[in-house]
Amino acid sequence: MPHFVIDCSENVLNLNAPDHTLLIVHQAAVTSGLFDEDDIKVRLNPFKENYIVGGKKQDFIHVFGNVMEGRTNEQKSKLSKLIVQQLKHIFPSIGFIAINIRDFEKATYCNKTMV
Known about the structure:
Distance between the termini: 16 Å
Oligomer: single chain
Number of helices: 3
Number of strands: 4
Strand order of the largest sheet: 2-1-3-4
């Protein structure tokens, strides 16, 4: 925990190396001070087809952040802004860059070390 899933148009892969993009989001999460570095997971899902942005096919990045409950709205807001700032810096030509943070409930979360 946490998980950051990056949905993006496929062309994003041509604008910056995928590994670098993953590391940028990872490092922003580390910099936030909210998580242990070893717990942070980041994945990237490029879309070649089947998407529109503002009624047309244009490049986009949207990060879905899933974190364990317990962080304040202020902490999550700072994390969101930090990640968008970093992505905006390495992708200045992309008009749509966004993130949302969702909470996992401790009561319903399970991983293999818990069973």
